[in-house]
Amino acid sequence: MRKLHFLVLFLLSIPSIYHLVDASLHVRYLPGFDGPLPFQLETGYVSVGESEDVELFYYFVKSESNPEKDPLMIWLTGGPGCSSICGFLFANGPLVFKGDEYNGTVPPLELTSFSWTKVANILYLESPAGSGYSYARTPRAFETSDTKQIHQIDLFLRNWFMDHPEFISNPFYVGGDSYSGKIVPGVVQQISLGNEKGLTPLINIQGYVLGNPTSDKKFEIDHKVSFAHRMGLISDELFESLERSCGGKFFNVDPSNAKCSNDLQDYDQCISEIYIEQILLPNCKVDYVLGDIPLNSPNIRSGSRRELKEFSGNDSSSLPPPSCFTYKYFLSAFWANDENVRRALGVKKGIGKWSRCNTENIPYTYDINNAIPYHVNNSRKGFRSLIYSGDHDMMVPFSSTEAWIKSLNYSILDDWRPWMMSTNQVAGYTRTYANKMTFATIKGGGHTAEYNPDQCSLMFKRWIDGKPL
């Protein structure tokens, strides 16, 4: 019913959108930020899909160092269906919300010290249609999937490069986090295949970056129990019983195994009040709940959410305390739905309410169950990759990511060691493999780079410069 309601609203908005011409906009001022922007920001729409009936919105931030020669990276937020504002204003962009208590005006912004745009050009894309300010003109075009999204992102890039030929020779990377672990390696492969077929413009693809990536649901589910045990969230006795009764396998558990089901209920009770994106933080209210799925849930294979709450910036009484990490998520809805903000960004008229993650309203087919074959193909073609994990993320445990990387069976070039901040503090641990893949943990980190942005920024800068962590 919710999807039908969304499609009705979507169809009613078409007349006010269709006649507008796509154009990029150089943004010099943003509501919430005092004075002109001290970096170069461009926004716009690019048409893709059958009859170009999908309009994908982007934010493009030029490197603050040497944009003509610095690497260019497209950044894809997960979900699927989450806005690229998650990257631009939370994880690795040049601005963040100040976090002041909301007073009914446009939430204020401030510059960051950790922006990845200090060393790279970053193209933040709202994909698929229905994410952020992106949209589709027809119900059929609105329907999408993992593989369709990969194809459309490749089309987006080749169209974007046609309008930005000055960046064609820059080293190009694909980046993303969370659910984009299913999309990013596929985009790298798609770009590579297109180049081999002679599609133009040729894209100078060099590699990819992934944070806490979903890759294979089986790996992630099977490692959650051991992660909870290693972090002291369940007892030794429960862990040992789970290992015995379930055989150490928690994906698609046989419902007739009563002992296993009972142990899983005890496990779920132990972790039910944990904020799984960073287990050390308070379990505050969020604008949407990805929610860890009970391990004995019938929906575990599809990865369906336990619950989902949307917040579109209408009710300030439902805000969590400003001390909560999630407070900025609510601020983003007030900011992104402000008419002056939309006007400044060049958002097309008729686009409905913005939500940080529009996951439940997008007709989406999950048709990539396992992203590991894409990593295998990309490794064979010699692409570099950086895979990093916040070590206190329970949504996609670092141990599950480490496990599928090991399953690739590449030899280790630089074995497990700490990598350091300039202050001689351990920032995390890392290992490098013969397929040019670097795995790194972020000590104290959560599900995305926003939890430890300074560490992640230093990690990215070293890696993109070709230096060891």
Quick synopsis:
This protein is of the alpha/beta class. It is 31% helix and 18% strand.
The pLDDT mean sits at 89
Task: Report helical residue fraction.
Answer: 25-40%
What would CATH call the homologous superfamily of the domain at 2-211?
Answer: Alpha/Beta hydrolase fold, catalytic domain
Give me the CATH fold name of the domain at 2-211.
Answer: Rossmann fold
The helix/strand series, from N terminus to C terminus, equals: HEEEEHEEEEHEHEHEHHHHHEHEHEEEH
- Rg over C-alpha atoms, rounded to the nearest angstrom: 22 Å
Runs in which pLDDT lies below 50 for 5 or more consecutive residues are 1-21, 289-294, 296-309
Label the overall shape. Answer: globular
Span of the ends, CA to CA: 49 Å
Q: How many helical stretches?
A: 13
Number of strands: 16
Keywords: Disulfide bond, Glycoprotein, Secreted, Signal
Signal peptide: 1-23
Pfam families: Peptidase_S10
Family: Belongs to the peptidase S10 family.
How would you portray this structure in words?
This protein is α/β, with parallel strands linked by helices. Among the domains are: 2-211, Rossmann fold, CATH 3.40.50.1820; 384-464, Rossmann fold, CATH 3.40.50. The chain is built from 13 helices and 16 strands. Strands 1, 2, 3, 4, 7, 8, 10, 11, 13, 14, 15 and 16 form a 12-stranded mixed sheet that branches. It has a two-stranded antiparallel sheet with strand order 5-6. It has a two-stranded parallel ribbon with strand order 9-12. The longest helix has 18 residues, at 146-163. The radius of gyration is 22 Å and the shape is globular. The model is unreliable at 1-21, 289-294 and 296-309 (pLDDT under 50).
